[in-house]
Structure formats: C-alpha cells, structure tokens
Amino acid sequence: MDGDVAIGAGDVSLQATVVRPVDARGVVAFAHGSGSGRHSPRNRYVATVLNDGGLATVLADLLTAEEEQIDERTGHLRFDIGLLAARVTAIVDWLGATDETSALPVGLFGASTGAVAALVSAAERPAAVRAAVSRGGRPDLAGGALPRVAAPTLLIVGGRDEVVLGLNRDAFDVLPGEKELQVIPGATHLFEEPGTLERVAELATAWFMRHL
Fold it and tell me: Of 48, 109, 119, 130, which alpha carbon lies 20 to 30 A from 175's?
C-alpha cells in the first residue's frame, strides 16, 4: 500500500501519502506544524530517511483544502490543538484498522504545533502509540495531556531557539515515561542551518528503531 489515500476523520477526509517499505518494522505518522501539510520539504526529507531505515510513513494534511483556505485568511485552525489532535488520533485509528498496517507498531513525529497534536494523541491512544518525536515543538501547549503521555518521547530543539528550548525543558520535567531532550547546536526553530535537519532525521530514526 504505497501512494495517496484518503483517511476518514469525523465528517471529513484527510489526504495522505503512504510509503511502506518491504518488511517494514513500524509505521510513523507525521503531524505537520502551523501552515504546513504533507508536501512539507522538511518532513518529506525526514520521512525518506525513516523509509531508508525500514519504517513506513504516513504524511497527511491535517486540514482539508477548504479549511486551509480559511486558515490562510485567519491563521486560527493551525493553532486549534483540539482539532489537530483529533485528526492525528483518527490517523492512528485508521492505521490500526487497515490490513497493511494493523500489525505495525505506531510512532508519531510532530513539528511545531503538530508536535502538540501528536503528544495529545499519544495520551489519548496509549495502547496504540509506541513512540513519539517532537521537532521544535511546543509540548507545553499539550496541557493536562502531557502527564498522560506513556509513549517514549524524544524532544528535539534547536540550540538557538531559546524560548522554545526553555519551554521544552519545562515540559520534559512533566513527561512521566521514558524521555530524552536533544539540543542541536546552532539550529534555529526551522532547522534550516546546514546539517541540522540531517541530525533531526538521524535522531528520530534511531529513536523509532529502538522503540518500534
């Protein structure tokens, strides 16, 4: 099952791209950050590295085309954590109900506000989500869900993203289970500096390979 699929989430369908290597050992669903979708070059790069490591990936648009048009005008939906988390949870449920992926352990990779949605979803589906990775995320926005995240969680933050780094350090103390905070020297919020995104992909792949 490779290619584009539609995933039901409540009364909408989410467009997604699935890549499943032969003998995949797990599957990672991506939760994109504010104003970003399944065509995000940063997440597509990380997904390719995960695929090379033998992990299946699901890159889904968490907003429909109509919602994206609304969000372009208002900027509100990209920060609607409840909505985004419900969409991520729908993807987790879909993976569990789909023959080609139902036997695979599930990981979540979230960026920016998508990382919050991923952590909330991990708290909602503790039996299904086996690992989570946050890239430049705002785990503090997960609120009461944060102490309920049972999945081993890796927080990756840029060393020059000082405000977000401080928020991640605070959130790290609240996470109850196995956890790690990795600071990438010289990286800013979007990890655009040479070599920084490659380091993100390397850390994420190692984390998922260990836990999936």
Answer: 48
Closest by alpha carbon to 114, among 166, 79, 157, 89? 79
Q: Could you please state the CATH topology (level 3) that the domain comprising 3-211 is classified under.
A: Rossmann fold (3.40.50)
Q: Is the pTM value of this prediction over 0.85?
A: yes
Give the Cα separation of 182 and 92 in Å (integer).
Answer: 26
Q: How many CB atoms lie within 10 A of CB 10?
A: 10
196-211 vs 41-52: helix crossing angle, rounded to 10: 50
pLDDT, tens digit (0-9, with 9 covering 90-100), for 143-162: 999 999 999 999 999 999 99
Burial readout 170-195 (b: 16 or more C-beta within 10 A, e: otherwise): ebbeebeeebebbebeebbbbbebee
